[in-house]
Amino acid sequence: MQKPIVDRTAEPSRQIFFEADVQIARDRVALCLWRNSDVFCVLERRLVRSDGIVLTQILSLEDGDALAEFAVADPYGDHLRAQYQSVDRERREQIHHQTDRKARSRPVDPVEEIGLIDACSNEGELMTIAGRVVSQLCGQSYVYHWLRVNEKTGGVDEYRSLVGCHPAWLHKYINRLWYRRDPFLEYAKRNAVPTIGVRIDLSNDDDPLMSHAVEYGFRSTPVCPAHSIFNAWVGVLQVSNGQPQGEGALWKHRVLLRALALALLDWHLATLRHEATNLFNLNQRELAVLQMVRDRRIALNVADSLGISERTAYAIFTKINGKLGAPNITKAVELAARAD
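The structure corresponding to this sequence follows.
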């Protein structure tokens, strides 16, 4: 099947109906409700902690109870009560206008479903496909994390998560800082091969995390990492069917689950490249040069790779510096990485 070519500049990928940005003590929480013509409303909650860590949750509101459960479980729910009420009003209004929306044809083959990910224009569409694929592969719930790994420290600076599980789970997971020492995420950062939870070494300190995960359905959990050699982002897919010793049913589908994890990472990286191109007005050659410098290649290496002179390579550096307002190419790489 030939993959459709997506022009993300052709139309807005989402319509925003509500936004709020609230400072709570030393942390900041932003809520954004959006949808497009093909998906139900989607809520994006972005928490910027005082230590600089950014944690974003993407939640589909197709299930009418999801928003209420999500808001009640939010540790900052008392501070955000008015904002969540506004989100609910807007969600109900959008449901009212969606009554005549035609249902989209949905293929049932997981391979075809995964092949449609490239054509998605936003994360709401990703979640629709991911949910169908997971259910077809014996799963009941999932979480997909995009992790931006700090190249110097090895820590994670940003977590962006698709919530395909109980809406309250990631609130507890984030509020108790379990993301700092999650053994599944640590495994995914260092390994590219899928595994199952029982094969990951756990310490006694991990017992509360694991026991609470079971409460929210993550009893049997294959872990599928996804890596790109050209970027600091890592993808992690965790799938569960909630059954004791249920990993076997999921594990037999590990090839397709890994394909789903890789396709979601590829989509994210393509979106970041598109946004960087628009933000800094960079062309494809300039993006390639930035990536090569990020990979610690010097001007001579860049020139050899592109078949140009070293002088021309330096001229491209100068042009990139001008577009990003950077004093040198090293700083330009840092600025572009932050835009990711």
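Residues 1-12 have pLDDT under 50 and may be disordered.
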